[in-house]
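User: Could you check the structure of this?
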Amino acid sequence: MSGANRIAGKGRLTPARTARFTFDGKSYTALQGDTVASALLANGVHLLGRSFKYHRPRGILSAGPEEPNALLDVSRDSARRQPNVRATVQEVFDGMKAESQNRWPSLAFDVGAVNDLMSPFFAAGFYYKTFMWPKKAWHGIYEPFIRRAAGLGVAPTEADPDHYASRYAHCDVLVVGAGVAGLAAALAAAEAGARVILVDEQPEVGGALHFDNGLTVNGQSGYDWAQTTAARLATLPNVQVLTRTTAFGYYNHNFVALAERVTDHMAKLGKQLPRERLWQVRAKRVILATGAIERHMVFPNNDRPGIMLASAGRTFLNHFGVAVGAKVGVYTAHDSAYEAAFDLKNAGVAIAAIVDSRDNPGAAVLAEARRLGIEVLTGHSVVNTSGRLRISSMQVARNGGGSPQKIVVDALLVSAGWTPSVHLFSQSRGKLSFEGEKQRFLPGTYAQDSLSVGACNGTDELQAAIEEALAAGELMARATGAAGGNAISLSGEAAFEWTGGMIGASEGAGPDTTVKAFIDFQHDVCAKDIRLAVREGMHSIEHIKRFTTNGMASDQGKLSNMHGLAIAAEALDRPIPQVGLTTFRQPYTPVTFGTIISHSRGALFDPARKTPMHAWEEAHGAEFEDVGNWKRAWFYPKAGETMHEAVNRECKTVRTTAGLFDASTLGKIEVVGPDAATFLNLLYTNAWDTLKPGRCRYGIMTREDGYVYDDGVVGRLAEDRFHVTTTTGGAPRVLHHMEDYLQTEFPHLKVWLTSTTEQWAVIAVQGPKAREILAPLVEGIDLSADAFPHMSVAEGKICGVPTRLFRVSFTGELGFEVNVPADFGQAVWEAIWAQAEPQGACAYGTETMHVLRAEKGYIIVGQDTDGTVTPDDAGVAWAVSKKKADFVGIRGLKRPDLMREGRKQLVGLITKDPSVVLEEGAQIVADPNQPKPMTMLGHVTSSYWSENCGRSIAFALVAGGRARVGQTLYIPMPDRTIAAEVTDTVFFDKEGARING
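Assistant: Sure, the predicted structure tokens are below.
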């Protein structure tokens, strides 16, 4: 048996397909397709949890993702365990273990329930007024206690053995929600020829059709029509239908994040299947068909197990075939709840009474209730309930006074109407508008290319929603350029037209009472708490939210926000729009960390990037340093050598013979298109339209404020193609910088940007014998000084492999940079090494590279600049064009502060004692004897021992630096003060003759 409360002939599940699971150690049988909630209700279990603050018994309130009460710990084994799983969403699988949370020692007998008796001491905002004294008790007593009490459930302690996946997708039209409106919109867009993605969080499409069996579409029952339509859409090549997939975040530029639950419902996990998949969808147009969420009634003791939303009662009956009780009461202010009573009555369940707070319900539903013999108490309210672990009765009284009557029930269905689900619309930065007549917020001003249709747009009548959705689907498809298909016609009919609705507290929970009438079930926020917040001076809804924690639970106030807002507005005596609305934030429902991080964990959390030559470098004894994510060869020590000895040897060898350096980590961006030169003219300070194909140029990139952002050598391969290099650390930000300007400031330019950092291995061959080493290996390029001068680039072959060969140098020596496809990087390196090693050349690392470039006065952006340095400050003003009318940063450079005298400028420093190497970052003063605090002139940016110069050398940013050349400045250190003379920045080969060798 799958439960005594199953009703034969009801529901859409197959009785022969069962699954076994346990709840709090007790075994139960479910049907495949059951949620944990429906399976437990089928077995007569209504008590599923305890509330956070008061530890009150709580049952199932809803049948969907808005569930605030039934949060369980669900596991397959000790490693595969997840807390705070919504029982109304989690599908049962064979062997599943579910446990209740926030109780001890058991769910039925919870010691924490003493908090309910002490509730007067736990009023809203109590945590702001307690734990203040004595101060010493905070760290030892209060904070540990609060941390132990905080949160629901227990976090897993074992590593997650499951794997997760992620996908990027693009489409013309993304439709979120697969109810009647969503299906109609998707169908219209698909028939027009658009590429469509349709997503819905439930296992099957249909939305409200899961419970509303009174709807028909084209003469077919609504649910059956939905399944037929989804099957039809799934066969179309331009449509993708994703179920069990929640759109949890709507970001800029129609970027929507989806979480797909791939295996959470499966008993046996396929090794190749991820547990969940993150979809990152970029849509040209988005249609939101997210429906509406039913509100509960706010009345005294409205939180007992067995009290649930009317739509939940209908879902459990019509979809799962489960009766929520044997004698059910209904309390409502909206016609929709009547249909729950009708469905239950027709299924053989006794209806104790329908209590309607309105004097005049809809005539049609009232007539049907009378026909079925259901007692309807209009103008009445439920003023209290009884029952410890499940509701046993309700007390009903006429509005305005009168003696309450007790009505025995074992379940109570409630409905205060429906709140349009505008969460994703708000996340898109759309502005809501308030509809006073029906007291609800609706989509107003759109910020992105999207439309809302159906119930989430306030379109209540079925046929109107269908027509609105069809029109939206076709409109959005045509807007993306789709031009096919014929117009679609659908007709829908509902059994009853719904009227009514209310927000705020009902009779018996008004301002003159102190009863527990719950608004936010998970955080135990009552109507009286909202009023207390107002009395305490909270007038902003955001302040009220934080004072009471209303809407701050895991359900994010899906049920409580509108009630809390209405009660606050009443207490403040202001219209609801003036009180405001809290912010809807991502995610719409909780998302696992696994889904978000996907493969980015363990070794892949912060993956090390290795160059194609890494294995060779490792085999030849290189020591490595971390440069961002890159592992770069730092130096190559020989047996018995210290780092300094190895670097000194490498520096001397490069200048006397040659050296090989792995420069693969340099950022590389391919800039292609007829407007490529124009684009680079705008992004860099110097001119590029005058650069001839086959030549290179050093370029400086500035930000809008005029400060140096990056630098690098750019080679022009053809009239419409440039090979741009950046600093290693600057590669991603420079590409982003370029894309940002291309898409926002210069979208008219025909330019394409491609990152090629990983595609090219770069081998720098530097030194007097560089040409001699390379020449035997290069095909199709004349390496002679006249044919291939400094700052040239050519394409040819090396070792039979395609190459882009640059004649550039970051050492001041004769130099070449060999770019080859990354797959051939190590093979070409080994071939060059076979030529270089017999001639006495060496491999050198980043430390030697730093010393050699400093000897020649070459800067490193990010080390010799600090974000406040202009090209002139850095000594590269020659790279700023005086003829260009515009480039990024031109106006910033003209600011008076960037042109004033006395700015910090990059200069060289040589210590009076040649053996003393300054510390990088050390501060510089003019007078070491001045009183403290001293006036700092600048700081040391780079400092090395130079074996080639036979002394220490350094760069520094110094106020008025170039005017101080020849002066002696001082560097105060903890143990001494070091004197140093200001020089220019070139320490070796000042004439620059060696580079042209």
